[in-house]
Amino acid sequence: QVQLQQWGAGLLKPSETLSLTCAVYGGSFSAYYWSWIRQSPGKGLEWIGEINHSGSTNDNPSLKSRVTISIDTSKNQFSLKLSSVTAADTALYYCARGFTVTKLGHYYYGMDVWGQGTTVIVSS
Amino acid sequence: DIQMTQSPSSLSASVGDRVTIACRASQSISNYLNWYQQKPGKAPKLLIYAASSLQAGVPLRFSGSGSGTDFTLTISSLQPEDFATYYCQQSYSTPRTFGQGTKVEIK
After folding, report:
1. How far apart (Å, rounded) are the C-alpha atoms in residues A23 and A34?
2. What's the confidence (pLDDT) of residue A21?
């Protein structure tokens, strides 16, 4: 049974850097994408970005290059850094595992295992 | 970015009802569409991927259909544990955008 456990600072001041880490227990690390998603009352679910085991990343351009996602395969962990936070970054942050399935030559993607979530509040 | 729009935003239904939730993409996404269920205080749970493929362990009363820009999630007979918020998500391209959610409430 794969589990994701995440942690990080929950209270930040404006302009600081958000830092979260997610550890993967009980499954393969190399065959998946490792993702970050956040959820706020005003914006619903927002996909932040993802990384694969090779370190290749995709992120959301709406976050204006403030995002860094990294991976440590020796520890089965991946991390999120979001720089220059503002109150608009206040949200519940989730890590998740992204899988791909091949059907009729097409690659389909879904997020099937999620962390427990970390509430991050940005306030002066 | 591809915009995902769900309707309705909320609905009230009774146990045993057939429930349908719609999701529309701002451009064609073929069948690169996922559905998630989220209960209060919990992370989202994947129900359906590739528009109509049931994720392992998900009850057969859940089904998905559609292709192109219009998609539907159907619950054939609503059960008490199905009262939750449902989200669609496109996996056609990054950023992998979500719909705004549909809250299914008890009538």
Report:
1. 10
2. 98
